[in-house]
Amino acid sequence: MERIKSWFGRCFRKKNQEEGSPEQITKKMTPLPKAVVAIVFSMIFFAAMAITMVFSFLPKLIKSFGISEVETGYYAGWVAASFFIGRIPCSFLWGWLSDVKGRRFSALLSLSAMSVTTLLFGLSNSYYWTLIFRGIQGCSNGVIIICKALIFVICDDTNLPLAMSVIMASYNVGIIIGPSLAGFLVFPHEQYPSIFSEDNIFSKYPILFPNMIIAVGFIVTIFLLFKWIPKDKKKSDMFNEKNYLLDPIDKTKPRYDNVMDESIQTSDDSVESALSTDDYMNVSVKLYTGDGLGYFQIIEPDAFMIQQPNRKLTLKEKWNSSKMKQVLSNKWCMVSCLLYGMCAFNSVGVDELLPLFLASSREYGGLGMTTRDIGLAYLISAAVMVVLLLTLLTWFSRRFGAKILMLVSLIGFGLAVPFIPLSGFIQNEKARWAALVINILLTKIPQSGQFLAINVIVNNTVGEDLVGSANGLAFGISSIGRMIAPSIVGSLQSWSLTNVKGIKGNSNPLGFPFNNFFPFFVIAIVSMFINSIIAFKIPSHLDNKPKSESEDNPDGQIGETGNHSKTNDDVFKEDTRVTDIKISYFNPSFKGDEVHL
């Protein structure tokens, strides 16, 4: 315990020394681009509505297909799972597409696909139509992944936590409004017979109305994205670059006249052994000139990414240069994605347990609440959560870093979850309501903190060229956690109720802690021990976006913040002039850290 306290103390002191006072942090924060953030909010909002609206009407929809009430749960479970089954294999593909084709193009494609599949899902009039198009809707759901990649590119370390908080806030608002809106608008002929006649299209397709509204929302967002999101920069196979900064030169001596020669061939000592002496590459040379001194900077494409003439890459070479290989070989990216999946498992587990506990009868230790009361409790806590997410959690992440936020959230979540069933012992109704709202907030605050922190960490494990692929992989793994959590937690819940003492029909009940407390204890143990240990191992430098690799760091390891080599902007003064010099067919050779022309 003393070692843990000492570690936290060192982390807090270190963060204070690096960042300064809270007032200084606030002054340093870069303002978010309002138009881009508004469009991202809209994209996530409608995506969240499309994901969660089905849960308010799914049982009734399944019964309308002629399925018995006994079998409704089974068939509804497959429809609910089909969305995540479709999302698992396609998540990485959406991330990869955003890295290769650009964020804007990928967002337009995903929004278009979501609008079409949402509308087709709204035309459900049979079970298999519902099952198939719910799965296809999951396949087309790349919006959240692309938005995270887009936010990472436009943000820096000072405003990335706030931008991620906006994404989470928009998602939370969407999952509140989505089911509520759908509950009011599905089966309109039954709810509003005076407005919707029996031969109306909305009577023939009873869930079309809310799905059509969401599809229109996607289409409107597409037009806004066309107007406000800038076009993607063109990328090529030479996207990866190496930078060399040559020794200072005296401007009075014409040492760099030969650089203007557009047909320079160097010796066979090439920078990358992958290129032979007969191969050339296009490079960009920048000449920095100041007071009496000048610098050459050679920007050289990654030689391995350049295909040699008349030679096809082997499958192994294609795999080694693929984004999938780069992401899978990134240790901390894989660890972060695994932690993302574990957090998703815990989150869905609590989200399933909480309404089951609230709806359970008092004799089983529940609160016996109606669906209206449960909705009201969620609405109150959600409104408070959105405010806290944009203020408290964002400030904490910027102040102490994503890793500290992750650890505090995991431990706080694990401590709060077992207290949820205790509210069932309170007899006074007002006190019970107060305890319930407090319990939900104490659970939801660290739950949101986990996802804010892990999203920042996942993004910071890779560079901008891989951030989409990393988010796609993390999203796919989290979908696996979300898919298996309901069955595992639901089974634990059912088994635990057989161990509640004083219930007729429960033979040989085990009692506490294997009664209705047991599934809450399991989730708490996973959070406090398994997830916390994984988070503890994550290096602190992932609190910040990765910096360019320095030449004295050959293994590609990213050092702690503050230990990076200086950038060109740090080296040269404000009055330095920069001249771009383009060279065709130039292959620099090097010896040690020097580059010879």
SSE diagram, text form:
Elements: H1 2-19, H2 22-28, H3 34-52, H4 58-64, H5 69-101, H6 103-122, H7 127-139, H8 143-154, H9 160-185, H10 188-191, H11 201-204, H12 208-228, E1 241-245, E2 249-250, E3 283-289, E4 293-301, H13 315-320, H14 323-328, H15 331-359, H16 371-400, H17 402-416, H18 429-460, H19 467-497, H20 518-537, H21 568-571, E5 577-583, E6 589-591, E7 594-596
Antiparallel strand pairs: 1-4, 2-4, 3-4, 3-5, 6-7
Helix pairs in contact: 3-8, 3-9, 3-12, 4-5, 5-6, 5-7, 5-8, 5-19, 6-7, 6-8, 6-12, 8-9, 8-19, 9-16, 9-18, 15-18, 15-19, 15-20, 16-17, 16-18, 17-18, 17-20, 18-19
- The percent range for helix content is 55-70%
Structural shape: globular
The helix tally amounts to 21
Overall pLDDT metric = 75
What's the architecture of the domain at 324-369 and 379-545 in CATH terms? Up-down Bundle
Here the CATH topology of the domain at 324-369 and 379-545 equals Growth Hormone, Chain: A
Q: List low-confidence stretches.
A: 18-27, 236-281, 302-307, 549-597
Quantity of strands, as a count: 7
Q: Look at the helices and sheets and give the structural class.
A: alpha+beta
How is the main sheet built? 5 strands, antiparallel
